[in-house]
Amino acid sequence: MEMIKIRLVRSTISCSPQQRKTVKALGLRKIRQEKELPKNGAVLGMIDKVNHLVEVIE
């Protein structure tokens, strides 16, 4: 399965509770933390919702 690597680059302090839950569901807790996830529709949708907080590393 194809994988995608993401990094949290901004804090979730000033974000809505829904965006905080999305970042937590992606497995990210600390700034500059990286996570490798499967590239599927659910993950891509979550990344799209918080694209101002995360960075995609191909």
Tag the structure with descriptive keywords:
single chain; 58 residues; alpha+beta; Ribosomal Protein L30, Chain: A
Note down, in words, how this protein is organized:
There is one protein chain. With 58 residues, the chain is an alpha+beta fold. The protein has helices spanning 17-25, 41-49; strands spanning 3-8, 34-38, 54-57. The chain has one domain (3-57): 2-Layer Sandwich (Ribosomal Protein L30, Chain: A). The mean pLDDT is 97.
SSE blueprint:
Elements: E1 3-8, H1 17-25, E2 34-38, H2 41-49, E3 54-57
Antiparallel strand pairs: 1-2, 1-3
Number of strands: 3
Helix content: 25-40%
Please state the average pLDDT score. Answer: 97
Which radius of gyration do the C-alpha atoms yield?
A: 10 Å
Question: Which superfamily, in CATH terms, is the homologous superfamily?
Answer: Ribosomal protein L30/L7
The CATH architecture can be named as: 2-Layer Sandwich
Domain Large ribosomal subunit protein uL30-like ferredoxin-like fold: 4-54
Keywords: Ribonucleoprotein, Ribosomal protein
Protein name: 50S ribosomal protein L30
Family: Belongs to the universal ribosomal protein uL30 family.
In short:
With 58 residues, this protein is α+β, with helices and mostly antiparallel strands.
